[in-house]
Write a structure and sequence with these properties.
Helix content: 25-40%
Structural class: alpha+beta
Number of helices: 4
Shape: globular
Strand order of the largest sheet: 2-1-3-4
Radius of gyration: 18 Å
Largest sheet: 4 strands, antiparallel
Distance between the termini: 20 Å
Number of domains: 1
């Protein structure tokens, strides 16, 4: 069994395929990859699936993330670093309840959870259906 993936830019309920080469170049910080989206925050969906006879068979996972594009069409690395910081804190924080010391409550985990939810929203039902149609056509 082989594993594959596809990347889509999600704009409201429209999906636009993004080549793996362009996505890899974007992630490496190369300028000019997405000049059309300069100065915007995009929702990117990465779909991971099994392959049977060179076609997608079963979706394993769909990950969504908001990325910020700079005016030159490159990814905002500072925004990406903040996202990695949130991910690392989610892994390293076993407790779900905020800590309290007297009258002061450490609500950092709550704020970071909200930030995580904003950066990793769920797809709308229409976007999800369009992605399925694009994969299994």
């Amino acid at each position: 069994m082989s594993i594959g993936h596809r990347i889509f830019i999600v704009e409201e309920d429209t999906i636009l395929p993004l080549s793996q080469k362009a996505f890899n170049e974007l992630q490496s910080g190369k300028a000019g990859i997405l000049p059309k989206y300069g100065g915007q925050t995009l929702l990117i969906a990465v779909i991971i699936y099994t392959i049977h006879q060179r076609k997608p068979k079963v979706i394993i996972q769909i990950d969504c993330e908001r990325i910020r594009i700079l005016g030159n069409g490159s990814i905002d690395m500072n925004h990406e670093q903040d996202g990695l910081h949130l991910a690392a804190n989610r892994i390293g924080r076993p407790e779900a309840k905020p800590r309290s010391s007297g009258r002061v409550v450490d609500a950092t985990a709550r704020f970071e959870e909200r930030q995580w939810d904003v950066r990793h929203p769920k797809l709308s039902e229409l976007s999800y259906k369009r992605i399925l149609n694009a994969l299994f056509k």
